[in-house]
UniProtKB/TrEMBL annotation, chain A:
Top-level taxonomic group: Eukaryota
Gene3D superfamilies per record: Potassium Channel Kv1.1, Chain A
CDD domains in the record: BTB_POZ_ZBTB_KLHL-like (cd18186)
Transmembrane region(s): none
Organism name: Elaphomyces granulatus
Name of this chain's protein: BTB domain-containing protein
SUPFAM superfamilies membership: POZ domain
InterPro entries reported in the protein's UniProt record: BTB/POZ_dom, SKP1/BTB/POZ_sf
PROSITE patterns: BTB
Domain BTB, first and last residues per copy: 40-106
UniProtKB/TrEMBL annotation, chain B:
Superkingdom, taxonomy of origin: Eukaryota
Protein name in the entry: Cullin family profile domain-containing protein
Keyword list, A-Z: Isopeptide bond, Ubl conjugation
Transmembrane segments: none
Record Gene3D superfamilies: Cullin Repeats, Cullin, Chain C, Domain 2, Winged helix-like DNA-binding domain superfamily/Winged helix DNA-binding domain
Annotated spans, Disordered: 356-386
Pfam families reported in the protein's UniProt record: Cullin (PF00888), Cullin_AB (PF26557), Cullin_Nedd8 (PF10557)
Ranges annotated as biased composition (Polar residues): 356-369
Species assigned in the record: Elaphomyces granulatus
Length: 265, 820
């Protein structure tokens, strides 16, 4: 489901006497290559989707692609890398590689249209008025959970060794998670985090724990349907999470640390 | 909310219990990599499988499984294959190389085979592990961070080390592949050292392997297998080789060949380390050569009687000497052995030069010289010659030293890289043998005299400059600079007064050079002499004006050119008679006396209160003489004679032709001192070409009873005849007694200088410990001469006696105070 991305912001609209930043020049040039077969020397196949990409852009940024292309495996000779991933995820990952950012925006989702939080993508302050639209060719709405998407992006970045994307996804997760401290989103986010990252990777796990501890009261409060965002069942279901939580709480309680812990009454 | 309805992208669920399935697919693929079938494998798939195992917390199991798989592969496939290519000859023959060529060749071929096999196995292993590491990239990251284990690559390298290289090849022997490898490489190196050609590339590749493997998984630099396993053995065998080599070379070859071989060995080993082995060993192997070939042998080589350094120095073997220098410099910063050898040779050569100068002076029996001096008579030519010869010897002595210096300097520059330390040693050696010749100051001054009188004729400015510069170099070596000054003054005064200098420019140049070299004080008096000469010229000119203005136009009047000398600046001793008795002024003929008195009047008018004392022994006169020969012809000659000779000749103006004057008569009428009289009469009546007087009887000696006639038949090809005074005009070497005189004077003068220095120091310090006083005096005087400590002590005593200083009572160490 290839999408057209129309971007109206940026350098192209600058008055001619304002010289663009050379860094922008490079980014814009690379952005122009995104999804274009021109110069392409590597194909990424993802289910039914095919992405034409450029080794010189993807390989230096991702050890995974570098090794796939440099080694003596099938990929190196065929120039095709098959990824068993969600096509949308792959597309956004590639978007990041070309534009240093990725967009998750759902026009059908009123929440994201909110003026205070227009879009996970944060354009430069000057560009806040600019619109960004994702149009799917089949007309179907991009039907996914934004938070979950960022978590999976984090996991993918981790797996493919793309450091910048990992950091960006993490920032996005933090922001989204704060908004979704409800019974529907929170348990599944925690589950996703603990399932998609290895134990040594503390990035998202620490966020989950910190967020939990700083909003404990809110999370434990039952909503109108009698559901809590942090039900006991979740603790039982994901032992790693429970373990991390208790360690963190113990550390906070330890008197030497000198700050008053949260009240659990 | 809108979101609730939405379906979610689910994260991959934890794979439970499918580890074995996943692993077996992965393991099969890894084996494919080892058998070089990787091109059909999908990297993504392998990576995904490994990733899944890691993400489901089975990373550690995966790691161990891969290790097991590798171990199994290395032990069962690689090691077996390698063991099969080890031929028996490699196992049996473990002593290196001096057997027959054929077995050498066999062994080399076998060695090359096994090296090639090891190299290939190693490179394969590296390649495969590289690919496997790529696949297990995610696992590596997790494992390394969580379990502090070495990366799978490092682990597999350790496996290669232990399972392939270190493990015994066959169950029945404990010989490992590593042993075989080491001995094969060392064998080949020995071959190369003995002039064979070997496959350097192959060895280098195997060494790469040893450099790439470590004793530990943490891979410290010092734990490289190359350093722990190979290098010690390499150094050991090299030591043996070079020990033998040193012995062999010393027996068979000369010093030059030895040094050449050693140098080329050093270069060879350097190259070997760079291209065949590892640069890591360069320092070690150079150390071996330094010890075995240089340190233990070089002293012998330098000292070789026939062709050692002595021989090289004598034959200007610059290249060979440079080799020796480079070798010695490797082991010894100060290059002591070489320096000593060079110094020894310089001293020897210097002593030879001294000896030659002595043999020149010895044939003239010294006692006779003593006898002939003073009131005794000089025996004309036959005395004159040896003295001249000695002068020549003195000049030759300086020339010889300069030649030697030039040669050594040249060698020093070209062979010894202008080494600072060696220069000091060379300078010391020169200074030592130059000062061991007691007459060095005199010789050197004579050398300057000779050159300034004659030697500079027809030379360009730069040549003159170089010549003088050379002389100055020697002056630097001379310790007794005050003695040199005395001689130089004496010689200079003669040059100035008799106008013998070729070029006044050169004289001045010389003075300024000395000033730079020895200091202002040294040249002060010399400069004063020049000033006197300049003032005298003016004086002569103004006197001539004065006479002209007086209106005394007597055409027969004697013209006067006068030099007025300040007596303290000039060496008056050369002007006074030698026995030191007070000298009566001689009687001048009337016409001369007039001029003399007229000048005195003129001069004292200008400078009242001065005293002029006339020095006829230093002057010359031009006389026009007329000879009425017996054949009727009239010959006219202009005679240039000494002042004394002029006085004598003027006597004959009043003597009728055919009549004579006796020696006694001449003496009483002139009052010329006997010594000078005899010499002047000798040059006028005995010297064959300048016989203006005739003597009866005709003999070579001048005796008081002799009669002298005016020689009307004097003949000469020249109109101008110069009649030198026998053995007085030129600067010559001193006779023994003159020398004693000079020394005595020198000592007196030094005494004065020492006292002055002591007083200067004490005046400044007021109180000073004895030893410190001595040191300060020594440093103050060092630029002029090296005083004798005893002399200083005596002078201190004398100053105490005269109450300039006092002993400070009960002071320990002893000290002195200054009495104001």
């Amino acid at each position: 489901m290839p999408k057209k991305i129309k971007r109206k912001y940026g350098l192209f609209n600058f008055p001619p006497d304002l010289k663009p930043d050379p860094g922008d020049e490079l980014v814009d040039a690379l952005t122009g290559l995104f999804q274009k077969p021109k110069y392409s020397d590597l194909t990424i196949i993802c289910g039914s989707h095919t992405f034409k990409v450029h080794r010189c852009i993807v390989c230096p940024r991702s050890d995974f692609f570098a090794r796939a292309c440099d080694g003596k495996f099938k990929e190196a000779s065929s120039g095709i890398v098959e990824l068993h991933e969600q096509p949308l995820l792959v597309e956004k990952m590639l978007e990041y590689l070309y534009t240093l950012d990725y967009t998750v925006c759902d026009q059908l989702n009123p929440v994201t249209e909110d003026s205070t939080k227009p879009c996970p993508i944060q354009p430069k302050p000057a560009d806040t008025d600019d619109n960004l639209t994702i149009v799917t060719t089949d007309g179907a709405s991009s039907d996914y959970d934004t938070l979950s998407f960022h978590i999976l992006m984090y996991s993918l970045a981790d797996r493919l060794f793309i450091r910048g994307l990992k950091a960006l996804a993490k920032v996005n997760v933090v922001r989204e998670l704060e908004q979704r401290l409800n019974a529907e989103c929170f348990p599944s986010a925690v589950t996703d985090i603990y399932n998609s990252t290895p134990p040594h990777d503390r990035g998202l796990r620490d966020i989950a724990v910190d967020t939990t501890l700083s909003h404990l009261a809110e999370l434990r409060r039952k909503d109108e349907s009698g559901q809590a965002a942090l039900p006991n069942s979740l603790l039982k279901q994901i032992p790693d999470y429970t373990y991390d939580l208790s360690v963190s709480m113990i550390n906070k309680r330890t008197p030497e640390w000198g700050f008053s812990a949260l009240d659990f009454s | 909310m809108a979101m609730r309805a939405r379906h979610k992208i689910r994260a991959p669920r934890k794979a439970l219990d499918d580890f074995d399935t996943s692993w077996s697919t992965l393991a099969a693929s890894l084996r494919e990599i080892h058998t070089k079938n990787a091109s059909s494998l999908s990297f993504e798939e392998l990576y995904r499988n490994a990733y899944k195992l890691v993400i489901s917390s089975r990373g550690n199991d995966l790691y161990e499984c891969v290790k097991d798989l590798e171990r199994e592969w290395l032990e069962n496939v690689v090691r077996v294959r390698l063991a099969a290519s080890v031929s028996p000859s490699l196992l049996l023959d473990r002593t290196p190389a001096d057997t027959l060529d054929q077995s050498n060749n066999e062994r080399r071929a076998a060695g090359e085979r096994i090296l090639a096999a090891i190299k290939e196995a190693w490179e394969d292993h590296q390649l495969c592990m590289g690919m496997i590491t790529d696949v297990l990239m995610y696992m590596d990251r997790v494992i390394c961070a969580d379990h502090h284990k070495p990366s799978i690559y490092v682990a597999s390298m350790c496996l290669f080390r232990d399972c392939v290289l270190r493990a015994p090849m066959r169950p029945d022997s404990d010989v490992s592949l590593l042993d075989v490898l080491k001995s094969a490489v060392l064998f080949m190196i020995n071959l190369e050292r003995t002039g064979h050609i070997i496959d350097r590339q192959l060895i280098r590749r195997c060494i790469y392997m040893l450099e790439g493997l470590y004793e530990t998984a943490t891979e410290e630099e010092s734990a490289k297998l190359y350093l722990t396993v190979f290098q010690p053995m390499f150094i050991e065998t090299s030591r043996d080789f070079y020990r033998a080599e040193g012995e062999r070379l010393l027996q068979l070859a000369d010093a030059a060949t030895f040094c050449r071989s050693a140098s080329s060995r050093i270069a060879e080993e350097g190259e070997r380390c760079r291209f065949t082995l590892s640069p890591l060993s360069e320092r070690g192997i150079q150390g071996v050569i330094d010890t075995e070939l240089i340190e233990k042998r070089i002293a012998d080589v330098i000292g070789l009687a026939e062709n050692g350094v002595k021989h090289m120095l004598d034959h200007d073997r610059v290249g060979d000497l440079a080799n020796v220098y480079v070798l010695v410099a490797r082991i010894d910063k100060t290059k002591t052995t070489l320096t000593l050898a060079v110094q020894r040779r310089i001293t020897e050569l210097g002593d030879e030069i001294n000896a030659t100068a002595k043999t020149f002076s010895h044939p003239t029996p010294t006692p006779k010289l003593n006898e002939s001096h003073g009131p005794g008579k000089k025996k004309g030519d036959d005395k004159d010659k040896p003295v001249n010869q000695q002068t020549v010897a003195a000049v030759k002595w300086v020339d010889d030293i300069l030649n030697l210096k030039r040669r050594i300097d040249d060698i020093w520059k070209r062979a010894f890289e202008s080494d600072q330390g060696m220069q000091t040693s060379i300078t010391n050696s020169f200074s030592e043998f130059i000062n061991s010749n007691a007459r060095s100051s005199e010789y050197l001054s004579l050398f300057f005299d000779e050159n300034l009188k004659k030697g500079l004729k027809g030379k360009t400015d730069s040549e003159v400059d170089a010549l003088l510069e050379n002389g100055i170099t020697l002056l630097r070596y001379v310790k007794d600079k005050d003695l040199f000054e005395t001689y130089y003054k004496k010689h200079l005064s003669r040059r100035l007064l008799m106008k013998r200098s070729v070029s006044m420019d050169a004289e001045r140049q010389m003075i300024s050079k000395m000033k730079m070299e020895v200091g202002n004080q040294f040249t002060q008096r010399l400069e004063a002499m020049f000033k006197d000469m300049a003032v005298s010229d003016d004086l002569s000119a103004s006197y001539r004006d004065y006479v002209y203005r007086m209106g005394d136009q007597d055409p027969k009047r004697v013209e006067l050119e006068i030099s007025v000398l300040t007596s303290t600046m000039w060496p008056m001793e050369i002007m006074s008679s030698k026995d030191g008795t007070a000298q009566l002024p001689c009687l001048y003929p009337k016409e001369i006396e007039t001029v003399k008195q007229s000048f005195e009047k003129f001069y004292l008018n200008k400078h009242s209160g001065r005293k002029l004392s006339w020095q006829p022994s230093m002057g010359t006169a031009d006389i026009r003489a007329v000879f009425r020969r017996s054949d009727g012809k009239i010959a006219r000659h202009e005679l240039n004679v000494s002042t004394y000779a002029m006085i004598i000749l003027l006597l004959f103006n009043d003597v009728p032709i055919g009549e004579s004057l006796s020696f006694e008569e001449i003496r009483t009428r002139t009052l010329i001192p006997d010594h000078d009289l005899i010499r002047n009469l000798q040059s006028l009546a005995v010297a064959p070409k300048t016989r203006v007087l005739r003597k009866d009887p005709t003999s070579k000696d001048v005796k008081p009873t002799d009669q002298f006639f005016y020689n009307q038949d004097f003949q000469s090809m020249f109109t101008k005849v110069r009649i030198g005074v026998v053995s007085s005009a030129g600067n010559k070497i001193e006779t023994q007694s003159e020398r004693k005189e000079t020394e005595k004077k020198m000592n007196d003068e030094r005494g004065g200088s020492i006292e002055a220095a002591i007083v200067r120091v004490m005046k400044q310090r007021k109180k000073l410990v004895h030893s410190q006083l001595i040191t300060e005096v020594l440093t103050q005087l060092a630029s002029r001469f090296v005083p004798d400590v005893n002399m200083i002590k005596k002078r201190i005593e004398s100053l105490i006696d005269r109450e300039y200083l006092e002993r400070i009572s009960d002071s320990d160490p002893p000290a002195y105070g200054y009495v104001a």
